[in-house]
Every structure is written in structure tokens, then in C-alpha cells.
Amino acid sequence: MKNNPNGTICDENMAKNMKNNYHGTVCIENSDEKIKKFPRTEKYDTTWIEKNQMGPNPLWLLEDLCTHLDLRPGMKVLDMGCGKGITSVFLAKEFGVTVFANDLWIDATENLRRFEEAGVADKVFPIRAEAHALPYANSFFDAAISIDSYHYYGADEMYFPCTFSRLVKPGGQFGIVVPGLVREFENGYPETMKKYWCGAFSEAYPEAIGELFSFHSALWWRHLWEKTEIAKIIACYNLENPKEIWLPWAKLSLENMPEIGDDVQFLADDVNDDLALIVLAAKKI
């Protein structure tokens, strides 16, 4: 095991990949910062993504995750917390898999319309179900994936062993990307961030109370899955430049949906760069 530049742990293959700017993708210099390119995502219309995304560009997050998954045509994949389903469209088009697009908040009929417009209605099936009341048989899926959603329910220690893992057949795959922390706040919150866990922010946005308590480090997530002895971890690390990935969504949401909070200020208040976007991939034992 080796420590990567972000302070998380990766295996030997991950260490080799990191030397090549993460998994062979290209980084370019822009304003003295390295911005990672996502060649698969570049094929999709930016306006379509912005219209349907519900957080930091989910196709960027999914594309990075998929470098650690072996997805093949005909596989059945659960896209958990799919939102408006653009990750499900991506999975069907890029890998030829059959996707069950599961979300609680977005109407299944609305998602079906999007899938029809995208030409993948024969491969992507919209389902509206809560994370603890899923209508799927045990061992039904070849893979279960969740982009920017799993932390809302999966931080519960019982969820992976008692619900999520049971849906995937032995030898199947798991993959999530979640917002989190570079390290746990073991000695209290940074002064500039404290308000987001308690105090004024919670009063201004009561629907968000408790949400940030699901933010944890990559090592925390790794341990959560590893200790069940259900899964072998394939990859666990922080994405490079998380704020650069997060910021376009922050600006978009502030302009169009200010009632959900100010992520631009949230990112600016993270003066110690404690925020992370965490990739975790595993194989069911």
C-alpha cells in the first residue's frame, strides 16, 4: 500500500496510474492549474448536462469511476440515486449495459421521456424507489453504482452489508463517488466551516440539517466496506482538483436555485482544502 498525494491510500496499480496523471487521461495547464479532461463526457452536449445535472458534473465523476469497473454489454447495472438519469444514459451508451435508473425524487415517467429522447429507452428502465425499499431481487445486478448520492443513505453502517451488497451477485462490482473530506475532523471543525455543520447555515437551510455529517474521508469509507468482508476494495482515493470540478455546478445552482444553498461560498470558506470528491470501487467476494 502507498500514500497518494492527497493523503488517501491506494493499491500498487493505483500508484502506477497516478504517475500517469490518473488512469491515462490527459491534464492540461490552464490558469496555472491542472484541469483533467474527460474524453467520453466531451461527446455529450454541455447544455443537456447543465439542464439535467443535480450536483457537480456527474458524467465527469462517473467517467473517472468507470476506469476501475469492468462493464460489458448485457450486464445489469443499478444506477442508484440517478437523479434525472444522465448517468444512466452514459452507462447505456458508453458500455452497452442494461441500467435500472433508481431515484426517489425524480418522477419515473419524466426520466423515461429523457431516456426516449436520448435513444436508450430499450436499455434504461426508470424506477422510483427509496433506498431502503428497493424492489429488486438479491444478486440481481452485475454492478451497483451511485454518483453523488450514496452518502445520503450509505453512511449508515448497516446499509452496505444489509441492503446494497445483497443486490449484487458474487463477483459483481460496486462503485460510488461521494463528496467528503480529505481527513476526518477529529479535533473540531475549522472555524470557517463550522457554520455548515451547525449554527447559521442550518437555520437558513433547515432542509440541509445533518447532511454534512455524511461527509467523511476516503479512509473512513474504505473501512466501512472492508470491515464487512463482503467486498475487496479495487480503488479508493480523492479526485484531483475537487473544487474545479465542483465550482461550475456551484455557480449554476446559485444562479438558478439559490434556495438550495450557496456552494460557491461553501467552497470559498474551505480555506484549508478539506473538501474532497471520493472515488470508491470494489468487487463482491
Protein architecture, described:
By secondary structure, the protein is of the alpha/beta class. It has one domain (39-284): Vaccinia Virus protein VP39 (Rossmann fold, 3-Layer(aba) Sandwich). The protein contains 12 helices and 11 strands. The protein has helices at residues 12-19, 46-52, 58-66, 86-95, 108-118, 151-154, 159-164, 194-197, 200-204, 218-226, 242-256, 263-269; strands at residues 2-3, 9-10, 27-30, 33-36, 76-80, 98-103, 124-128, 141-147, 168-181, 231-238, 275-284. Strands 7-6-5-8-9-11-10 form a 7-stranded mixed sheet, with helices on both faces. A hairpin with a 5-residue loop joins strand 1 and strand 2. The radius of gyration is 18 Å and the shape is globular.
Count of domains: 1
Named CATH topology:
Rossmann fold
Number of helices: 12
Q: Spans of 5+ residues with little confidence (pLDDT < 50)? A: 1-35
What top-tier CATH class fits best? Answer: Alpha Beta
> Fraction of residues in helices?
25-40%
Shape: globular
Largest sheet: 7 strands, mixed
Total number of strands? 11
Outline of the structure:
The chain contains twelve helices and eleven strands.
What secondary-structure arrangement, pairings included, does this model have?
Layout: E1 2-3, E2 9-10, H1 12-19, E3 27-30, E4 33-36, H2 46-52, H3 58-66, E5 76-80, H4 86-95, E6 98-103, H5 108-118, E7 124-128, E8 141-147, H6 151-154, H7 159-164, E9 168-181, H8 194-197, H9 200-204, H10 218-226, E10 231-238, H11 242-256, H12 263-269, E11 275-284
